[in-house]
Every structure is written in structure tokens, then in C-alpha cells.
Write a structure and sequence with these properties.
- By secondary structure, this protein is of the alpha/beta class.
- It contains 4 helices and 9 strands.
């Protein structure tokens, strides 16, 4: 089975470092969408079955309707690919989230703040996302995997005490998974 794993696109990010240069900010946002479209084109060309998005697909506070409609249209282009998204700390699954407001294609599965699971053939796919801009959870350590199946985890956070505010994950919790589609950083 083929899959692609991406994270931290931060579409519609304000680019504070480009302050005073709106043209450069606009150009960078266009380049981000172009890079995402290249991923979609690759998925179509290679007939990739699964796409994992490990959080921060867009910037909740700044995302435009045009960007959300663009994402939806891109996901509609890959109808034969199951898309698994976990909400990150920049695109949390809050009440006003585009994940809740817009109709996403049937091939898109969005994980919330409780461990979710989907099974495809002999693969169990688990996910845990943010439901606010901060999250402190240890639910991952309690996931019971089936050793007769391939287990994949998709999540967003920090590793080994980097920050309890951003879903701190311990490496030992991850050892029971065959693959971890993770967006995490550590200050170590």
C-alpha cells in the first residue's frame, strides 16, 4: 500500500517576518498552494491510496474561504485516496473550524480530540488531533493495538517533555505502532 505523509503547511500564514512586504507574503502563499498541488498531482500519478496530514494544514485565525475551497477541490481530485487529517494547534477542531463548517469530500476523515480509528484491510489507522490551540493529553499511551494488524498513528505534538501545552508525546508510547505519521518537535 502506498501512502504520503505531510504536515505543517500552514496555508494562509501571515508571514510576520515579511512585514511591510505584502507582495512577498502573497508570493509565498501562492508557492505554498503550488507545493500542495504538486503533492496532489503526485498522488494521482502514483495512485497513492492514503494521504496522512499530521496537523497545521492551515492557519485557523487567517485562513480564507478561497483556501478552504481550494483544499476541498484538491481532495476531490483524489477521490480514490483516503485522506486522514489530524487537527493541529494552528488548525484546531474548534466550533468555528473550517473542518466543522464546510462539507469535506467523502474520502476525507478528520480526527478530533479523542482517539479515533479506521480500519482498511489489515491496517488500523489511529488519530488524535487538537480541539483547541493548546492540548495536554496522554491518550496515545492507552491505545491497544492488534499485533496481527499493521498499526498506524497520526498525530501532532511535541516529544519527550518539549511542551505540555502542545500535546507532549513520549517516545515509548509510539513503539507499538508500525508507522507514526507525526508532526512533533523536541527541544533536546
Amino acid at each position: 500500500m502506498k501512502f504520503v505523509h505531510i504536515a505543517d503547511l500552514h496555508l494562509d500564514r501571515p508571514f510576520v517576518s515579511f512585514k511591510g512586504n505584502k507582495d512577498l507574503s502573497k508570493k509565498r502563499r501562492i508557492e505554498q498552494k503550488f507545493a500542495f498541488k504538486k503533492v496532489i498531482d503526485y498522488i494521482k500519478k502514483e495512485k497513492v491510496e492514503l494521504l496522512f496530514v499530521s496537523g497545521d494544514l492551515f492557519e485557523q485565525k487567517y485562513v480564507t474561504e478561497d483556501t478552504i475551497l481550494y483544499l476541498i477541490s484538491c481532495f476531490e481530485e483524489i477521490k480514490d485516496t483516503k485522506v486522514y487529517i489530524v487537527a493541529g494547534n494552528h488548525d484546531p477542531l474548534i466550533k468555528t473550524s473550517p473542518y466543522n463548517i464546510y462539507n469535506w469530500p467523502n474520502n476525507v476523515f478528520i480526527f478530533g480530540n479523542e482517539v479515533g480509528k479506521d480500519t482498511i484491510n489489515n491496517i488500523d489507522i489511529y488519530g488524535l488531533g487538537f480541539n483547541d490551540y493548546y492540548m495536554d493529553s496522554n491518550e496515545i499511551k492507552d491505545i491497544k493495538t492488534d499485533e496481527n494488524k499493521i498499526s498506524i498513528l497520526i498525530t501532532h505534538g511535541t516529544l519527550n517533555g518539549a511542551s505540555k501545552m502542545y500535546h507532549d508525546i513520549k517516545e515509548e508510547w509510539l513503539k507499538r505502532f508500525n508507522y507514526v505519521a507525526l508532526r512533533a518537535y523536541s527541544y533536546a
